[in-house]
Write a structure and sequence with these properties.
7 strands; 8 helices; 44% helix; 263 residues; seven-stranded parallel β-sheet; alpha/beta
Length: 263
């Protein structure tokens, strides 16, 4: 399949103030894309914009339905077209299902799942044939991880939505990709709604990814129009193992979480 060219394309990246979102914006800009940056912290977005030589900024709290609508209205008003839409904004909860705060659960689902669904719905009229929609999901969206019930469920839902959307948009020639990374060295763990920790989950540091590695994988996936990208690739083995021997893998994961004091 011929690789898609990104020069002179318009790309909107949510959660672009730091981590994967910032790295992704920088990588796409380096390939010639024009960037539209979303985040909650305008000062951090301005820093990202300065790193790529300028970009449009639309700051909004996507957990708020009114703010989501306002964000989409601004994008529809300010943009003539859109070629790349990267849904990266997200938050986590690291807590057993029976101790997850219901307000935190609602906010997580609003940001991790409902925001991509609603933004995609409203901005689809801007998407040109040949464009790409990227859902930044997680390996947690492919596995059953004890102690991450709400977070993992949001990413499972996001992956399912991407699969369905891909079929619906096939005739419009719009590419849809799920990006499922493992542990990434970002402030994500320390910024969780619940169960915040500066320490990684057990065994994660050995295969820890950098935001730049994630951005490169997303960039490559867009150009090659991939369906799903799991990083590191070893993650596919864990996914396959759970499908073949779910009880064995789930038991091992539960023991690991208990040893870490999180399950």
């Amino acid at each position: 399949m011929r690789a898609a060219k990104l020069s002179d394309k318009t790309a909107l990246v949510t959660g672009a103030s730091s981590g994967i979102g910032r790295a992704c914006a920088i990588r796409l800009a380096r390939d010639g894309a024009r960037l539209v940056l979303h985040g909650r912290r305008r000062e951090a977005l301005e820093e990202t914009a300065s790193l790529i030589g300028g970009a449009r900024i639309i700051d909004a709290d996507l957990t708020d339905p009114a703010a989501r609508s306002s964000f989409c209205a601004r994008a529809l008003d300010e943009l003539e077209s859109l070629d790349i839409l990267v849904h990266n904004a997200g938050i986590g909860i690291l807590a057993p299902s029976d101790s997850t705060d219901p307000d935190h659960a609602r906010n997580l689902l609003a940001l991790n799942f409902l925001a991509p669904v609603e933004i995609t719905r409203q901005l689809l009229p801007l998407m040109r044939p040949g464009g790409s929609i990227v859902m930044v999901s997680s390996i947690a969206g492919k596995l059953s991880l004890p102690g991450m019930g709400v977070y993992a469920s949001s990413k499972h839902a996001l992956n399912a939505y991407a699969n369905i959307l891909r079929g619906e948009l096939r005739e419009r020639e719009i590419h849809v990709m799920s990006f499922c990374p493992g542990y990434v060295r970002t402030p994500f763990m320390s910024n969780m709604l619940q169960g915040a920790s500066a320490a990684p989950l057990p065994g994660r540091m050995r295969f820890a990814l950098t935001p730049d590695q994630c951005a490169e994988a997303i960039h490559s996936g867009i150009r090659k129009r991939k369906r799903t990208v799991v990083l590191p690739r070893l993650g596919w083995l864990v996914v396959a193992a759970e499908r073949l021997c779910p009880a064995l893998v789930n038991s091992a994961m539960s023991r690991a979480m208990r040893r870490d004091g999180r399950g």
